[in-house]
Each structure stands twice: as structure tokens, then as C-alpha cells.
């Protein structure tokens, strides 16, 4: 690829970024879009944003950037949770390490590449990108020791920064454990694989088992019922009928009129309802009175239950130990937070989970293999000169005007790849759901890993393999020489990676800031369908798509830093822009419904270590190709040092992310007992995990008869009955909740 083609792609993406950022700074000030761009703040700080749109609503501004940078880490932690802080620290780490890499490589290594051979150079726009890679350095060059030294500096500083960030997130995780609001999940254990017998129910079996083997810490339990689409419909119908029975003494005001809506598309009008005469409605009330027996829909018990313990330490011990000699029965895990429970998967039989995991693994592999064809085609577009040698009929394309060829080779491939990649996240989320996770956060983390593996394989390795196939057709001829083959082809693939950063990085950040789908949905709902604003729906941050994307760019930065440093300035712009955009989105747009406590950081750490080791292996192959035994020899200890550093982090810090320290839990239990809060916490556990919450009920408000004093007593009695019923429901405990004998 020529520099001119790269500049064409950069110009298009810079123009799109400036356009989207300007539109965003204007659209965010419009009152009609407040729920698109301030969804989280409207839901949590409703009264503070009512007067935020008064002046300069149609003038682009940069005030939102200053506001996003003004927030401290403590404010981000309080507003968006520890996962948002971990994501933010990943961007900070990337900015720091790639700022150093850009300083060393652009000013230290790039001139060595450009003047690596004694050739006559053209003007910069007409130069090929390979001139700026290590491929332009002669064999046995005396300057290769500079590459080895820079590789040592980048790897050493990356390990130091990574350890500091790992330790910082671990400290915040312990503080997250000691937060002011008690977490019911710390007192609760999810039990699956409960053996069923005909003699007793699951509820009795759970009570007998934990009373016998955990008598000192067992409190009570709650059975989980099978849930599905049909079950939810039946439960909703049951609750609606119960509500209707409480309001048999109400009538409809005959003076009210039907509401008329006019369609924005065709102009036709429709009535929302038609009123019937009161004398026709009143006699029909007796038909609504149904027997309680007809409303009793028996929920089928499943082999799962939430078991509550008196202390956090008791729940931790019960979740870690093996309950019986059969590992598939009485399986215990710490329960997720109440808002994080994925009820649709909890009732799944535990014995079939391993089959689901194998099936989803095979499905993910097949999907990754099916993606080879479009990726190979896309890579071919960026190397039309190579395809021309194999496919002579492409001569007509290369004879097109110069600017059209630049557009095809410089911009079109990454755009097509980005369109294909939009299908990856929903499919991987579907696979993760089929695995049977018990929480929303676990499902999202599983999808995050799948998307990450997919991107690394298809965007990095498949592009490298396809580039090698197009040039040499011998990538798999000698598997032992794979590092050497990677060293040969990665510098040549730097052009595609740079355009990918421009399209999937810069442009995607601008579209994320614009919230195009949210804008379109808000416009159709408000102005076409004339529906009220949905105040309840606020999206959560898509960690399963954004974390893999940032980590992929980090992989590209590490592998190309020494070999093709021209990519580093573009990456730095992406990380700086992403730091501002993502902070703005986390603080204003997305709502945190559940938090994993920083469990995304181990994924980030492992990916960075993989990127460093892969970079060192590729550089080892490059030094071998350039016949530099000194540089190659010094690279081997660097690989060993990086692996030893990773093992130290796994031993020192990783256990803090897999379980909670018993010391901290015991101290918290003693503090709660001394302060008298433990009894209040135990009382709150009764309503913490509600599989069929009352919030799903159909709320039927009392309807008074206007101008009729005869039914006044009936209205008052109906209201009191309604309040009494609500109070009884609120204070009641599920009949399947058993308390252990004291």
C-alpha cells in the first residue's frame, strides 16, 4: 500500500470523526435527546438535569470533554462501579506504554527503517509502506541492537505498569468487598444438583441436608422454580386476576372521553377505547369473581435453591468445600448479586451443563472457521498488486483512476471487515447464554472471552496467514518455521492494521459517542409512534464488545511497535479519544445494573502478557532472518523473564479475584454483630432473591365514581383493603422459605 492510500483512509476517517463529534456536541444539548445521551443521569439524578439545556444549543462545543476529564476515579467508581474503573485503567495503561513506545520507535527506529538500504527514495506520498518497516533493513545490519534494546525497554516498562495496575485493582476489589451497603450474595450460596426423591420435596431435602451438615451457620433457604415463556405468561395472568378481585367495587367515570391518536405517517386517527354504559358493566362484575383454586398455578420445583447463612464466612466455607462424594450432587457456588441473577438458566439441570459447554465451543469454532472466507477476501482487496499476479482479470481494476484504487486498497477493506464484525458479538452472546451461566455478568464475561479469541484469530492471525498465502503460498509448508513466517509477513501487513485502527477505532468511537441506534429508536418512538418515553430502559455498558476491541488494538500496537512503528501515532490518538469518550459514556449514558468486582482485569492481564510474548517471539524470528545472533540471543531471556513475571502475578494477585479472603469476611461479620446490624441483614435476606417480584404485577389503581356519593363508603373500604393486601404481600415470606431451628 502506498502512503497516499493510507492518507486517503486517514482523511476520510478524520472527516467522519470531526463530523460526528460536532453533531454530538449539538445533539446532546437538545431536550428531545436527553434520554439518549444522559440515560444514566436521568434515571439516578433526575432533578439535576432539568435545566441543563438553555444556551448555545446549536453551537458545537468541547465542554463535554472537560467535564469527562474532570471526574476523579472515586467518582467513576461510585457512579459506574469497579468494572468501569478496571476498563478505565486499561485505557490509562495503554496510553502510558504506547506513549513511551511511540517516543522510542518513531524517533529512534523509524529513521533506521527508512534509511535501511541504499536506494533512491521517492516523495513521501508515493513511497510504499514497506519502506517504513523492518523489512527495509539489510541483513547483518549493525543497528539491529537498537531494536533489541527498545524491545527490552517496552517489555520491562509494560510489566512494571501492568503489575502496578493489577495491584491497584486488587486493592479496589477488597474495598469493594467492604462497601457500606451489605451484599446479600456474600451470605448466600446457590445449590444445584439437588437429588430428587418421591418421598420428600426438594425444599425438605435442602432443609434436612444443611440442618445436618451446616447446623451452626445455616439460616434458611429458598427453592428455585422452573421459569420460561409460558410460565411467565401464566404467572402474569394469575397476578392480574388477583388484582382485579381487589377492585370489584370500582366503576368508570362516564364523563371521560376516548383518547384519540393521529398517526404521523398516514394521518388516520384511532380511538384508544370505547366506554360501555355503567349498567352494562356493573352486572358483569360477578363473572370476574373466580375461585382461588382456578388461580393457583403450581410452580414446579427444580433441583436448585438459594441457601442463606448467618455469616459471610459460613457461606464462603459452604461454597468452597465438596459437599458429597458425588461431585455432580449438592454443587455449591457463591450466589451472584440479586440484580445479577440470570433466572432463565438457574433451573437448568447441572448434569447437562458440560454438554452445553462442549456444544457452544464447537459452535464457536465452526463460526470462526466460516469467517475465514470473508477475511481472506478483504485482505486481498488491500493487496491488489499481489492478486493481479494470480488473477490476471483484475488488471481492469488497477487501470482505474488513481484515487479510486487508493479508496479500494486503503479504506474499503477495513470498512467491509467492520460490517462483518458487527455480527460477531450477538452470536457469541447467544453461545454464552446457551452455556448456562447463572448470572448476567458471567454471561457477559464469557461472551467477552469468545469475542476476544475471535478477533485475535480472525483480525490478526487470519490476516497474516491470508497475506502469506497471497504472497508465498507456503505458510503451512513448515510448521516449525511459523515464527519465521510471522516475522516475514507481519511488517507487510502493517498497512492493513493501520487502516483497521482508523476505521474500527476512530470511526467506531465517534459512532459510539453519537449513539446512532439510540437516536433512531428515540425518534421513531417519540415522533412516529407517538409513544411515551421509556423511562425504565437504560442500556448497560457493552463490556463484551469494547474490552476485546481495546485489547486487540493493544496487541497490534505491541507486535508492530518495533517492526512497523508507523502504526503507533494512530493508536495513540485512538486511546486518547477512547479515554474521553468511554468516560463520558460510562458517566452519562450507561447504567450499571450489576458489577463483577473487577473480574475483567484478569482477562486484560492475560491478553497483555500474550501480546508481549508473541511480540518477543516474532522479533526473535526477525532477528534470525536478519542474521543477528546477538539480538536473537538476548531476546530468549526476555521471553523467559516475561513468563516468570506472569507466574508471579498469578501467584500473588490472581487468587484475590477468584475468592474472598476469610480474614476480611470474619472481620466484617464481627463488626456487624457488634454494631447490631446483623439482625437487620438477616431480615433483608428474606426478600433479596425474589424470582417473581411484585414489581412485575399489573398495577391497577383505584377508580372513583365522579358525582356519586352513594359509593363513597365502598371506595374507602376498597382502598383500605388494597393497602392491607399490599402490606400483607410486602411483609409475607414465601411458603417455601424454611427457617432452621435455633
Automatic annotation (TrEMBL):
Cell location: Membrane
Residue intervals of the CSC1/OSCA1-like 7TM region domain: 356-623
UniProt keyword list: Ion channel, Ion transport, Membrane, Transmembrane, Transmembrane helix, Transport
InterPro entries: Csc1-like, CSC1/OSCA1-like_7TM, CSC1/OSCA1-like_cyt, CSC1/OSCA1-like_N
Residue span of region Disordered: 704-742
Main location: membrane
Residue spans of biased composition, Gly residues class: 713-722
CSC1/OSCA1-like cytosolic domain ranges (all copies): 186-345
Gene Ontology CC annotation, any one: plasma membrane
Compositionally biased residues, Polar residues: 731-742
Spans through the membrane: 6-27, 97-116, 143-164, 358-378, 411-431, 451-470, 550-579, 599-623, 630-648
Molecular-function GO terms, alphabetical: calcium-activated cation channel activity
Domain CSC1/OSCA1-like N-terminal transmembrane: start-end pairs: 5-164
Membrane topology: Multi-pass membrane protein
PANTHER family according to UniProt: PROBABLE MEMBRANE PROTEIN DUF221-RELATED (PTHR13018), TO DEHYDRATION PROTEIN, PUTATIVE, EXPRESSED-RELATED (PTHR13018:SF146)
Family: Belongs to the CSC1 (TC 1.A.17) family.
Listed name of the protein: CSC1-like protein RXW8
Organism: Aegilops tauschii subsp. strangulata
Amino acid at each position: 500500500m502506498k502512503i497516499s492510500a493510507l492518507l486517503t483512509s486517514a482523511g476520510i476517517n478524520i472527516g467522519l470523526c470531526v463530523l460526528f463529534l460536532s453533531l454530538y456536541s449539538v445533539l446532546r444539548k437538545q431536550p428531545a435527546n436527553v434520554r439518549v445521551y444522559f440515560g444514566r443521569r436521568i434515571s439516578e439524578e433526575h432533578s439535576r438535569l432539568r435545566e441543563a439545556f438553555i444556551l448555545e444549543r446549536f453551537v458545537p462545543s468541547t465542554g463535554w470533554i472537560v467535564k469527562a476529564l474532570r471526574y476523579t476515579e472515586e467518582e467513576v467508581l461510585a457512579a459506574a462501579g469497579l468494572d468501569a474503573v478496571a476498563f478505565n485503567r486499561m485505557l490509562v495503561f495503554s496510553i502510558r506504554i504506547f506513549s513511551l513506545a511511540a517516543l522510542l520507535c518513531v524517533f529512534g527506529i523509524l529513521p533506521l527503517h527508512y534509511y535501511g538500504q541504499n536506494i533512491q527514495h521517492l516523495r513521501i506520498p508515493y513511497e510504499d509502506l514497506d519502506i517504513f518497516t523492518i523489512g527495509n533493513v539489510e541483513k547483518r545490519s549493525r543497528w539491529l541492537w537498537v531494536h533489541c534494546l527498545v524491545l527490552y525497554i517496552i517489555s520491562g516498562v509494560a510489566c512494571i505498569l501492568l503489575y502496578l495496575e493489577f495491584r491497584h485493582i486488587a486493592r479496589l476489589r477488597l474495598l469493594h468487598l467492604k462497601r457500606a451497603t451489605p451484599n446479600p450474595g456474600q451470605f448466600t450460596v446457590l445449590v444445584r444438583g439437588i437429588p430428587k426423591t418421591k418421598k420428600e420435596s426438594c425444599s425438605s431435602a435442602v432443609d434436612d441436608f444443611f440442618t445436618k451438615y451446616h447446623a451452626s451457620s445455616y439460616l434458611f433457604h429458598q427453592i428455585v422454580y422452573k421459569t420460561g415463556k409460558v410460565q411467565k405468561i401464566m404467572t402474569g395472568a394469575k397476578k392480574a386476576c388477583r388484582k382485579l378481585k381487589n377492585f370489584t367495587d370500582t366503576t368508570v367515570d362516564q364523563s371521560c372521553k376516548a383518547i384519540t391518536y393521529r398517526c404521523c405517517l398516514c394521518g388516520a386517527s384511532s380511538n384508544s377505547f370505547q366506554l360501555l354504559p355503567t349498567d352494562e358493566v356493573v352486572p358483569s362484575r360477578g363473572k370476574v369473581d373466580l375461585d382461588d383454586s382456578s388461580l393457583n398455578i403450581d410452580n414446579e420445583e427444580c433441583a436448585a435453591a438459594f441457601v442463606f447463612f448467618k455469616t459471610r464466612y459460613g457461606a464462603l466455607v459452604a461454597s468452597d468445600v465438596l459437599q458429597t462424594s458425588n461431585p455432580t450432587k449438592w454443587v455449591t457456588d457463591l450466589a451472584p448479586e440479586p440484580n445479577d441473577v440470570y433466572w432463565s438458566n438457574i433451573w437448568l439441570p447441572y448434569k447437562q451443563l458440560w454438554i452445553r459447554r462442549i456444544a457452544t465451543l464447537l459452535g464457536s469454532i465452526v463460526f470462526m472457521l466460516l469467517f475465514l472466507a470473508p477475511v481472506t477476501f478483504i485482505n486481498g482487496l488491500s493487496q491488489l498488486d499481489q492478486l493481479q499476479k494470480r488473477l490476471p482479470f483484475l488488471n481492469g481494476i488497477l487501470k482505474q483512476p488513481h484515487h479510486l484504487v487508493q479508496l479500494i486498497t486503503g479504506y474499503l477493506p477495513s470498512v467491509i471487515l467492520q460490517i462483518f464484525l458487527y455480527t460477531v458479538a450477538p452470536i457469541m452472546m447467544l453461545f454464552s447464554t446457551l452455556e448456562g451461566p447463572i448470572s448476567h455478568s458471567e454471561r457477559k464475561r464469557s461472551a467477552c472471552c469468545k469475542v476476544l479469541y475471535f478477533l485475535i484469530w480472525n483480525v490478526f492471525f487470519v490476516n497474516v496467514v491470508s497475506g502469506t498465502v497471497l504472497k508465498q503460498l507456503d505458510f503451512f509448508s513448515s510448521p516449525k518455521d511459523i515464527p519465521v513466517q510471522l516475522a516475514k509477513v507481519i511488517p507487510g501487513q502493517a498497512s492493513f492494521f493501520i487502516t483497521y485502527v482508523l476505521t474500527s477505532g476512530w470511526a467506531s468511537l465517534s459512532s459510539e459517542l453519537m449513539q446512532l441506534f439510540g437516536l433512531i429508536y428515540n425518534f421513531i418512538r417519540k415522533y412516529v409512534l407517538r409513544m411515551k418515553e421509556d423511562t425504565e430502559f437504560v442500556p448497560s455498558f457493552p463490556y463484551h464488545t469494547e474490552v476485546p476491541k481495546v485489547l486487540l488494538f493493544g496487541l497490534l500496537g505491541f507486535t508492530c511497535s518495533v517492526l512497523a512503528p508507523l502504526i503507533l501515532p494512530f493508536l495513540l490518538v485512538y486511546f486518547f479519544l477512547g479515554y474521553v469518550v468511554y468516560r463520558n459514556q460510562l458517566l452519562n449514558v450507561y447504567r450499571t445494573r450489576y458489577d463483577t468486582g473487577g473480574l475483567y482485569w484478569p482477562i486484560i492481564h492475560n491478553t497483555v502478557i500474550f501480546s508481549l510474548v508473541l511480540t518477543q517471539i516474532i522479533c526473535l524470528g526477525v532477528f534470525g532472518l536478519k542474521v543477528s545472533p546477538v539480538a536473537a540471543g538476548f531476546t530468549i531471556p526476555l521471553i523467559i523473564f516475561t513468563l516468570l513475571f506472569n507466574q508471579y502475578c498469578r501467584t500473588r494477585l490472581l487468587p484475590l479475584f477468584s475468592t474472598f479472603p476469610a480474614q476480611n469476611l470474619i472481620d466484617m461479620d464481627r463488626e456487624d454483630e457488634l454494631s447490631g446490624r446483623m439482625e437487620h441483614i438477616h431480615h433483608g435476606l428474606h426478600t433479596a432473591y425474589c424470582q417473581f417480584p411484585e414489581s412485575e404485577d399489573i398495577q391497577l389503581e383505584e377508580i372513583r365514581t365522579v358525582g356519586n356519593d352513594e359509593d363513597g363508603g365502598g371506595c374507602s373500604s376498597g382502598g383500605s383493603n388494597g393497602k392491607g393486601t399490599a402490606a400483607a404481600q410486602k411483609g409475607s415470606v414465601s411458603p417455601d422459605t424454611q427457617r432452621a431451628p435455633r
